[in-house]
Amino acid sequence: MHAVAPAPLNPTFDVMATSPRRVAVVAAAAVATAASALVAVAASHTDAAPPPPVTGVQVLSLATDCGAVCQATVVAALQSGGCGDLRLFGALRMVAARCPLKDSSPAPPASVRAAAYSTASAKTAAWMGALPGVTAVDADAVGHGDAPAPTATMATAAAQRSSPPYFWHRDRVNQHDLPLDGVVNSTACYPARGAGVLVLVADTGIATGHTEFGSRAIAMPGPGSPYSSGNDDNGHGTHTAGIACGATAGVAPGATLMAVKILDGHDTGAGADLIAALDYAATLKALDAAAKIVFSASVQGFGPASTTAADRAAAAGVIVVVSAGNREGVGADAAGDACAAHPAAARRAITVAAADSADALSGDSDAGPCVDVIAPGVHVLSADAFWLPGGLARRSGTSMAAPVVAGLAALVLAEESEGGNMTGADVLARLTAGAPTVGGFPLAWANPDCKCAR
Ligand SMILES: [Ca+2]
Predict the structure, then answer these.
(1) Residue of 274 and 50 predicted with greater confidence
(2) Is 236 a catalytic site residue?
(3) Mean pLDDT to the nearest integer, 301-310
């Protein structure tokens, strides 16, 4: 992996500073700092060598009744077959392994990301698929986040706060129709604000020192991932986590955030790391059936096994929310089909498309029958990892829309004493009851009519 060297931070910058002169002076410095950060991020996406693809790793899906003994048998068979890098995802009944080629099919160049789909020969895959308990074999693939670097010209946080639309994503989801009424809180019907709900955001980690998170956040490296900490070296994860659970940008500011780092400084990562994070969430749910757990993933480009994993985590009781993806599999000028994106295709997950502030489907949002809901995802204001302690930035993408829905799901679960028993379908029904249609999809919303919301 290639870490992005963050721009120098400005620890003295205080977005709540009240002196106009101080704001002006500090803001000027902050703009310069932020500009440096943007350059650093942009450079990482264009100049540095791309991260290596996940060549040769295959993910095996096991029968859902494949228990501990069955799983151990599969692992032992893989080991005896010379496979390495074994990772067992017990709660999901899945295994990742790198197995030797069993014929002389040439491997494609390692520089080609799509090579991950074809690095195991058909013969190898056939052998793996024939092992007792194995129901599917999928090549692992390198995926990435669903939003580029910050979109809007970086203004000062003070300016961001004063220029409309301010936190428009929060404003939009608590009212039926436009225009935005300036009310961002949804506490009338959701007074708990997400308290008691654990929201796992699988992404690039978070800047733990950011004021949007405070003591409600835990940042950790993905289980079995190559990362040494949950610190965000890209910015994508800090922004998405802020949308879900940030103190001011967050839809569910009372929820507990667990940021799981599965993507590197380039905003890319291995599908097996996403699966491991889903397995972690499912394991937590297995340990405490009453736990209210939301899993938010703003990613695309992974292999079909990630869709299987998302479905299985949802079946285990985790409320899984995934972004629809941006132009997956199509040219730069057309929206793609979310059913072609992984894990967006997961049927049990809540798949989210992106809307703009005029209630239109974002031009680069994937769509199609696999989309369940739409949510604000254009020019969304949230936490900036490189502008501590409290800087904000705007980003666009289905990456921004998914955590809006994760936050809404947390609001719903928090109000229910038996929220731990709710399925993704239950939550989806709540989020769309009485909702307006936006861009051809139901808007996920915090229904302000409490009689309807419950
Ligand atoms: Ca509003």
Answers:
(1) 274
(2) yes
(3) 93
> Which residue among the candidates 186, 298, 382, 399 is catalytic per the annotation?
399
Handedness of CA 15, 252, 375, 357 (dihedral sign): negative
Would the pLDDT of 51 be above 80? no
Structure tokens that stand for 170 in this block? 């929060």
Cα torsion 189, 384, 424, 59 to 10°: value is: -170
Among candidate residues 203, 232, 337, 384, the one labeled active-site is: 203
Tell me: the pLDDT tens digits for 65-96?
999 999 999 999 999 999 999 999 999 999 99
Please report which confidence band the pLDDT of residue 46 belongs to, taking 50, 70 and 90 as the band edges: very low
Average confidence (pLDDT) over 15-39: 32
Map tokens 């999809």 to a residue.
Answer: 441
Global pTM?
0.84
Residues of the chain with CATH 3.30.70: 57-140
- CATH code reported for the domain at 57-140: 3.30.70
- 163-199 residue pLDDT tens: 554 899 999 999 999 999 989 999 999 999 999 999 9
Give the mean pLDDT of 226-255: 96
Between the CA of 171 and the centroid of ligand 1 the distance, in Å, is: 4
The domain defined by 145-453 folds into: Rossmann fold (3.40.50)
CA of 175 to the centre of ligand 1 (A): 5
| Contact call for residues 240 and 402 (beta carbons, < 8 A) | yes
For residue 399, indicate whether it is catalytic. Answer: yes
Q: Boundaries of CATH 3.40.50.200 in the chain?
A: 145-453
Q: What is the pLDDT of residue 440?
A: 96
Residues above pLDDT 70, as percent of the chain: 76
- Nearest one of 288, 294, 298, 300 to 313, comparing CA atoms: 294
Interval between CA 446 and ligand 1 midpoint (Å): 10
Report how far ligand 1's centroid is from the alpha carbon of 189 (Å).
13
Neighbours of ion ligand 1 (CB under 5 A): 171, 174-175, 181, 183
Tell how far the Cα of 168 is from the centroid of ligand 1, in angstroms. 8
Q: Which of 144, 210, 236, 239 is catalytic?
A: 236
Phi-psi region of 93 (alpha: psi -120 to 50; beta: other; left: phi over 0): left
Largest interatomic CA distance in the chain:
71
Q: Residue 380 contacts by C-beta under 8 Å, 6 or more apart in sequence? A: 168, 169, 239, 243, 394, 395, 396, 400, 404
- Residue-wise DSSP of 233-287: SSSHHHHHHHHHH-TTT-SSTTSEEEEEE-S-TTSEEEHHHHHHHHHHHHHHHHH
Tell me, in angstroms, the distance from the centre of ligand 1 to residue 262's CA.
33
